[in-house]
Specification:
Layout (H helix, E strand, L loop, with lengths): L6 E7 L3 H12 L7 E10 L3 E11 L6 E7 L13 E7 L2 H10 L3 E5 L10 E5 L6 E6 L3 H8 L2
Parallel strand pairs: 1-4, 5-8
Antiparallel strand pairs: 1-5, 2-3, 3-4, 6-7, 7-8
Length: 152
Amino acid sequence: MIDLTRTHHKGIAVADIDRAVADYGAALGLTFAPVRDFDPLPFWTPEDGLRDLRVRATYSLGGPIHIELVQGQGPFYDPASAETARHIGVWVDDLPTETARLIDLGWTVRAANAAPADGYGLIAYLASPDGALLVELISTALKPAIDEWLGE
């Protein structure tokens, strides 16, 4: 079951991450962790299957909920996309089980970092049945690496 008290971030796809860091930082009084490049980042979508993307990302420091800025390739990371440009990221202990539970409730997997046959990997994005909410399930296996990145 998703526990919203475990929400880690509000994610926003941006066209230019360096500009977004400056703009969001100035407007909201935020400081961001160093931008990291993930190249390649294994990324699965129902339309394209598994492929490698280049993604640049950062998180605001402090919390308890971070702002995640992501600049990536392809339609999933298009800032103009109403469906995928904004999401919430929530820690889950068992990503494959939680993904299956949401699918059973009518949610749709929009992307993940591994194919369904491989348990979706460490992150999976699911859209609500009405398409109004996109949730990124984040495996707690990633928590040590993200905490180190953010100095937490």
